[in-house]
Design goal:
Pfam families: BPD_transp_1. The chain has 13 helices and no strands.
Length: 301
């Protein structure tokens, strides 16, 4: 009977495991191999160069500049998105004042409507979002500059996507706008599972809203927060689609990121070997940061 059980398990797993190896593990292995060649991508000839491409990555000023932009996104995006998500989720779930001034824990009025509005950007295609924000940032007739002029702040008008001083900040603003709503809904769902009696007891004992959030709410929703941190780190190390459509890395490479530099190296410079080395380096950076983050954010039970 024991023999039949293992035979059933193996027969059930062999196909999905084989598909995973072929379509997921195999491409990673091929990328590592290509990264050690000078293959141009469009010919059958190539030369083995060993680790030369990886050594070149470490001293490539264009790659290091792109890495610096990803580091800025890595610091800013997760912090802003998680803080904004936690604040809005807390207001939606526990922000109400209760009836007749009592201590009952309630959400704000229209909480369901707010969740829909916040989540709406997450259902749109990233291409649609980027094109829409191009119109918002348009320097002459764009919504942002028009709003600034309408409220008497015309001196703040900028060529947002065309100025090296503001292009990266504009991209980061779009990334925060796109992602925050999803995490508002995620954190709201986690907070909804907290028994309201716990929150009410803390308020009755004299704890203020901040202490209640810090001491009770945040520890109880820490697992979703940790998951959000990991996903946002991975997203901040990518940023390819938003950057390519909004600025294409410009002006003067002021907003280029590692993924876009890898794409340009492969398809514009026809250097797939070096592009693969950039991709493998990006993979290693992502794995290292993810592992470190999991250890640093782990909470003892």
């Amino acid at each position: 009977m024991h023999h039949h059980k293992w035979r059933f398990i193996l027969s059930a797993l062999i196909i999905p495991v084989a598909l995973y190896v072929i379509f997921v593990v195999s491409p990673y292995g091929q990328a590592v191999w290509i990264a050690m060649t000078d293959w141009g991508g469009y010919s059958a000839s190539w030369n083995f160069v060993g680790l030369d491409n990886f050594a070149r990555v470490l001293r490539d000023p264009d790659f290091l500049r792109a890495l610096g932009h990803n580091v800025i996104m890595l610091v800013v995006c997760p912090v802003l998105i998680i803080l904004l998500g936690l604040f809005l989720a807390t207001m939606i779930t526990f922000g109400g004042s209760g009836r007749s001034g009592n201590r009952a824990v309630t959400g704000v009025r229209g909480a369901g409507f707010y969740r829909i509005v916040y989540f709406f950007p997450s259902v749109l295609s990233i291409a649609v979002i980027a094109v829409m924000w191009q119109a918002v940032f348009e320097p002459r007739n764009g919504l942002l500059n028009g709003f600034l002029s309408a409220v008497g702040l015309g001196w703040l008008r900028q060529i947002w996507l065309g100025d090296p001083r503001t292009s990266l900040a504009s991209v980061i603003a779009v990334m925060v706008w796109v992602s925050a709503g999803f995490y508002v809904v995620l954190f709201t769902a986690a907070m909804a599972s907290i028994p309201t009696e716990i929150i009410e007891a803390a308020l009755i004992d004299g704890a203020n809203r901040w202490a209640t959030f810090w001491r009770i709410v945040l520890p109880l929703v820490w697992s979703p927060v940790q998951t959000a941190i990991i996903f946002l780190i991975i997203g901040a190390l990518d940023g390819f689609a938003v950057v390519q459509i909004l600025t294409n890395g410009g002006p003067d490479n002021s907003s280029t990121v590692m993924a876009l530099y890898m794409y340009d190296t492969a398809f514009k410079s026809s250097n797939f070997g070096y592009a693969s080395a950039i991709g493998v380096t990006l993979l290693v950076i992502t794995l290292v940061l993810t592992t470190v983050t999991l250890r640093l954010t782990r909470r003892e039970v």
